[in-house]
Amino acid sequence: MGKKPYYQSIIDTLQSVDRPGNYVSGGIISMPLPALLLSDQPSSILGLPLCECHIKRVIEHASRAPFGMGEKTIVDTSVRCTWQLNPSQFTINNPKWEKSMHTLLTRLKTELGCDEKMAITCELYKLLLYEPGGFFKRHRDTEKARNMFGTLVIQLPSDYEGGQLTVSHSGKETEFSFGGSDACGNIFFAAFYADCEHEIKPITKGHRLCLVYNLLYSDAGECPVPPDNTSHVSSIVSAMEAWTKNVGSKTCPKMMSYMLEHQYCEASLSFRLLKNTDRAVADVLVQAKARVDFNIFVGNVHLTEYWEASHCGYDDYSADELYNEELCAKNLKSIDGKRIPSVDFPKKYLVPEDFFSGIDPDDENFQEATGNEGATLDKQYRWAALLLWPVKKRTVMVDQSTSEPPAKKQKVKCSTSSACGTSSKDNSKE
User: Fold this and answer.
1) In CATH terms, is domain 24-217 a member of 2.20.25?
2) How far apart are CA 424 and CA 246, in angstroms?
3) CATH 2.60.120 occupies which residues in the chain?
């Protein structure tokens, strides 16, 4: 008999998650001021936030921003009420701006879940100015350029209130509130896929100034689409509910240690700092936890193997036969910062169970033969993992810091049927 169906379902689901990312990304960002110049006044930089005289100058040169409706482009201030300048009407005069944009695009490629090998660029589309009462009703962007897959909005320092940006996709919604006291001295950004619905709520006070870019993918790649892990989350929820219902039965697995792709030092190991697919897997579990309660921690799994060994000459030795091993996860951290010192568990709860068989040890300690004791070799491994188990089982898995130290190990030879489970063929029953 193999693993329980609900247990195997969690494994299969997590292994099918192939990329991180979200349909939207945004927040405050450190960038230089662009040094905006109106084309007909190339010697006078627009100060930010805009003063009253500069607001008037921008509006004098601007036109009402239209919106797309099918094949038509329409101006209707009951749907969209804002001013626009085309790129030919202004200039970005700070040479450092382009470098900052390159840095931002590198970040967006990760946060929007684009293929790592794909090159993405941006194309300046408009400069927008929102007055009090300005807004843009819920809509989807039309593809305004070849290979366009998304929109990037960079809000320049502005003195305004209201004007929240909401972005939604596949039943999810994210709201950005970039107005208020922080808006005057900071630059904010929001980037999202072109098929996302979004709106700008009415400006209640002041003026909002922003640059809008089209996000473009290279001809060599396919059009990026928003990562959608909705089905993965639902599968985890169903499987975790089944696992929780089976807690208490003799065959119910106590936990799972899902091994990550990347290795992390203790200082950088947290949910926030996970990379690439590791972050995508964690995101799925975090979203599932919002719907069904279970324990999830990130930590480093430590494996120590104890081998009978032989001295093969000067500074050389060989591992002959494994006689014992210890497996323990240490310094576990939860999503909200809760910590657990350590968790001991058998190898059958590793996913995959033979994970350490293809990894070189982080450290080795050879002990010469003494008296009646033969030579021994200790191999130590460390790798990051996500550990999860049903809420009802948390007290079973947690070691107490006051527990007694382990007794001296006895040499008990391991086999494919032993408790050590060193062989990748060890199909321990769940």
Assistant:
1) no
2) 27
3) 24-217
